[in-house]
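[retry 2/3] DNA mismatch repair protein MutS: previous attempt timed out, resubmitting with same input.
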Amino acid sequence: RIFTRMGARDDISTGKSTFLTEMSEVALILNKATPKSLVLLDEVGRGTSTFDGISIAWAISEYIYNEVKSKTVFATHFTELTELADMYPGIKNLTIEVRETPDGVIFLHKVVEGVADRSYGIEVAAIAGLPQSIVERAKEILNIIVEKSDIEKKVGVLKEGQMKKIKSTKKTVPEGQLRMF
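[retry 2/3] DNA mismatch repair protein MutS: success.
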C-alpha cells in the first residue's frame, strides 16, 4: 500500500486545526504501514512551533526507520533532519538541483543526492508575485539575522552535545531492511 501525507487543511466542521489533522493522518499511516508500504510525507511538523515540529518530525522519522521499516520519502525544510543520514545506515539526503544566475534562480526539478545549502523562500516569494518592496525587505531582514551570528538560536541548529545525546539514545536495527530517504 502507498500512504501519503501532503498538503495542509483545517477541518472546520469538527474543530480540527491543520496541525491536529496532520498528526491524525500521520498516526493513521504509522498504524497501517508495513515494511512493504511506500510512505510519502511532506513537511510533517510545519503546523506547530519550529522546535516542536523538528522534534516530532525527527521522532516520526526514527519510528518509521526502526519500527515500520517501510520505504519512505520525507520531504522537509527542517535542515536538522539531515543529521539522521549520519546516524542511520541507509538513510539518504536528497535535494532538488537549483541553478543560480544573475537574473535569479532556476529550479531544475532534478533530484540529486545531497543537502540543500540554503532555502530559496525569498526567491519563490518573488516568483509568486509578492510586491518587490516585501521581497527587498525580506532580504534585508535575512541579512540582519545571518549577520547577527546567533543564527543557531533562531533556526534551532543542534549543538554537538545535543547531537551526541540524541545519537546515544537511538535504537539500532539490523542491516538489510528497507531504508528511508
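[retry 2/3] DNA mismatch repair protein MutS: Residues 2-116 form a domain with the Rossmann fold fold (CATH 3.40.50.300).
[retry 2/3] clearing retry counter.
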